Amino acid sequence: MFDSRSSVDPAPPATLLHTVAIDLGERSYPILIGHGLLDDPQTWGGLPRASTAVVVSNEIVAPLYAARLRAALAPHYARVLEVVLPDGEATKDWATLNRIFDALLAHGCDRKTVLLALGGGVVGDMTGFAAACYMRGVPFVQVPTTLLAQVDSSVGGKTAINHPLGKNMIGAFYQPVRVVCDLAALATLPEREYCAGLAEVIKYGPIHDTVFLDWIEAHIEALRSREPAIVAHAVRRSCEIKAAVVGQDERESGLRAILNFGHTFGHAIEAGLGYGQWLHGEAVGCGMVMAAVLSQRLGLVSPAYVERLTRLVAAAGLPTRAPVLAPDNAARYLSLMRVDKKAEAGEIRFVVVDERGQAYLRAVPDAVVAEVIEACAAGGGDTDAGTLRV
Amino acid sequence: MFDSRSSVDPAPPATLLHTVAIDLGERSYPILIGHGLLDDPQTWGGLPRASTAVVVSNEIVAPLYAARLRAALAPHYARVLEVVLPDGEATKDWATLNRIFDALLAHGCDRKTVLLALGGGVVGDMTGFAAACYMRGVPFVQVPTTLLAQVDSSVGGKTAINHPLGKNMIGAFYQPVRVVCDLAALATLPEREYCAGLAEVIKYGPIHDTVFLDWIEAHIEALRSREPAIVAHAVRRSCEIKAAVVGQDERESGLRAILNFGHTFGHAIEAGLGYGQWLHGEAVGCGMVMAAVLSQRLGLVSPAYVERLTRLVAAAGLPTRAPVLAPDNAARYLSLMRVDKKAEAGEIRFVVVDERGQAYLRAVPDAVVAEVIEACAAGGGDTDAGTLRV
Q1: Which one of B158, B170, B251, B361 makes the best mutation probe of the A interface by having the most chain A beta carbons within 10 Å?
Q2: How far is CA A188 from CA A61, A323, A338, in A?
Q3: How many contacts does A have with B, using Cβ atoms within 8 A?
Q4: How large a percentage of chain A has pLDDT more than 70?
Q5: Domains of chain B, with CATH numbers?
Q6: Which residue from B minimizes the CA distance to A132?
Q7: pLDDT value, residue A341
C-alpha cells in the first residue's frame, strides 16, 4: 500500500541548543535558544493553562511565521487568534497598542489568555505592555524573530510605547513567562535589521566582558555572514550577560542602567531624526561610539580603545558618525537627552566604560557633552568611515 | 506691639485617628485616617525623596483642596506642580490619562517624581495608572476626598482606565506608597456622591462581617448625616477589611474577587446606561440587591435577608431597582457581563453571599441570571422602593 506520507519531507527536528535562566524569584523564566523551535509543539508545552492564545505580530513577520506558530500552538489551546500590527518604530504608540486591546475585547479574551509576541523589538515592547495592562495583567511569551530582540529587548521585562516627547516613556516592567529564540527565524531578516541587532551584541563587551568583546572582534565577519554556530554563541552569551544584570536589578534602580550603553545618545538620534529614520540598533551603534568618545574625555579609555570600538561598529555595518540635528545640533541633542529616563532633576546621566569591561553611570557637564557631539558629527571630520547605508 | 497673627484663627491641629497597615511585603504601606491631615506638612514627611511632586486632581476638587495640599507639600519638595483633569467617569480614558503624561514630560519630570492623586475614584484610578506607566513606574500617594475612594478604591493598588467595550479593562496592580484619608474633606462632598460611597461601606458587611452589617444598619441615619465619629469608624472598619482581603490576594487570583460583590451587575448597569449616568456606587448599590436576589435563587440566603439588604441600600439613598437596558434587557446585561474581568472562557462568575458573612464566586446559568435581572427590573413590580434620585 502506498504511504502518501513518504513523499512528504518531514520537518527537520527542532534542536534546543541552550537554556538560559532568568532568576527573578516567582517571576523567573527560561530563555530557550535553538533551531526550529517555533514549529515544534513541544516548545509550547507547560505554559499557563488558558482557552485562548493570541499571536501578536506585524505585517512583515506574520506572513512568514504566524501560521506555523499557530499550528504548533494548536494542540495546547482551544482557540489560537492572531493580531497583525503595522511595522516600524513609528507605530509604537497608543493607537497601535489599542488595536491589541480592541481585538482582545472583541473576541472576549479573559484574563487567563496568553499573548505571544512574534516579531522584533517593537512587537515585543507593545505586546508586553498590552499583556501588562489588559485586565491588569495576562501572561505573555516573547518569540523574538530579529537578532536585536533575541539578544536584548525580549529579555528582562521592559515593555513600553513611545510618547511624542520621548521614547519608551509609557510602559511597565512586566516579565514574560518564557522567551523562545528560534535562530532559524534570523535567516529571513533583512541585512540592515540584522546589522542593527549586532549593535546590541557588541554592547555586552564594553560594559561587562572584554573576553566577549575580543571574541566578537575576531568573529565579526562570521557574524555578518550568519554562520549558525557563531550566531548561536553570540545569542547565548548576550542572553547570559543580560540575565546576570537583570537578575541583580530587575527595575533598573542601579546596575541595570549599564545595559543602556550608547542608548542616551542613540535615543536622541532616533527622536531627533524622527522615529523610524534610523533603526534603533543603528542609533545605538553610533551612540556607543559617542559614549566611547565621552569615556575618553573622562579619562576612562584611550584613543586607541575608541578607534577599536569605532572600527568594530563600522565592521558590523553600522553608522559611526552622528547626524547633525536641526536647528542647533548639540543643544538639540542635550534637550532631547534631558527627558531620558536616566536623567534625574534635569541632570543627564551617561553610561561610560573603562577598558576592563566595567561600566559606570555618570552625570557630565553639558559643555563636555556638547564637545563630544560636535566631535562625532557627520561631516565633522573623517566622513568615509561608517556612513549609514540607506 | 500689635501681633497681626493674633487676629488670625490658627488652623485646627490635625488629628490622626487611625493607621491601618496594608501588609504586602516590600510593597506594604499605611492608610492614615484623621481630620485635617491634608493641611498638615507632617502628614507628608517620609515619602520617597524627589525634587518634584505633582498633585493630580480634577476641576471640582482642585479649587477646594489643591492649593492647601500644595502648601503642605512645599516644605518637602523643591517643586510642587498641579495637573487638573476634567471630572467624571466618562473621562476615565486614554485621552485624559495622556494629559497627565503630557504634563509630566513637558515639565521634565523624572522617574523619582512623586504623584499625588487628590480626588475620588476616577482621579485615583487614573493617577495610579499614570504612576504605574510613567517611565515604567514612579511612586504615588492616594489622597482620597470622596467616601467611596476612602473606603475602597484608593486602597489595594487597583488602577485602570475604561475601554469602550468595558470598564477598567486597561490597568495595572500598582500599590501607592501611602493613603491619606482626610475625613474633613468629606464635608464638601455632594449628597449624591456621599451616598454612592455608602454602597461600598455596606458591601463589607455581607461579604465578610455580619457584626459590621448590623452596625451599619443601626447607624445608617448617623452615617447619612455624616456624624464624625460614626463616619470615622465606617472608614476605619472598611479599610481594615479591605486590607485583610488584599493582604491575602494582591492580584485577585481568588479571594479578592469577593470585594466585587454587586459589581458584576453594577458594571453592566454603568456600561449599559453609558458611563457617568449612574454613579459607580449607585450601580453597585443596585447590583448588591441583584446579587442578593441571585444568592437567594441559589438557596444561600432567605427572602428576609434580601428584603433587609434592599431596605438598607434604599436607606443609604441608593437605587434598588435595575434599569431596563435596551434593546432586550436581560440579553443586554448578559452580553455586557460576559466581558467582566471575572469571566473566564465566556462564563460569567458572580460574587454571592450567605447569611453568615461568607462570599463565594459562582458561575451561574444564563437562564437563572436572566430571571434575576427581570425580577429586579425597574417597573417590574414594587416601584416605590429605592427609585433613583436624579
Answers
A1: B170
A2: 9, 29, 37
A3: 99
A4: 94
A5: 5-188 (3.40.50.1970), 192-245+254-376 (1.20.1090.10)
A6: B172
A7: 79
Region class of A371: left (phi > 0), else alpha (psi between -120 and 50), else beta? alpha
Task: Among B230-244, B332-346, B348-362, name the one with the lowest average pLDDT.
Answer: B332-346
| Nearest chain B residue to A77, by CA | B345
**What ipTM is given for this predicted complex?**
0.90
* Residue B170: closest CA among B129, B110, B139, B136: B129
Please say whether the beta carbons of A98 and A110 come within 8 A. no
Rounded Cα gap, residues A166 and A159, in angstroms: 14
Distance CA B359, CA A169 (A): 41
DSSP string over A39-70? G-GGGGTTSPP-SEEEEEEETTTIIIIIHHHH
The C-alpha cell of B220 is what? 445608617
- Res. A383 pLDDT band, cuts 50 70 90: very low
The Cα of A150 is separated from the nearest Cα of chain B by a number of Å equal to 22
Place of cell 542593527: A196
pLDDT in tens, B178-205: 999 999 999 999 999 999 999 999 999 9
Q: pLDDT-derived band of residue A269, with 50, 70 and 90 as boundaries?
A: very high
Name the more confident of B382 and B241.
B241
Q: How far is A339 from chain B (nearest CA, A)?
A: 6
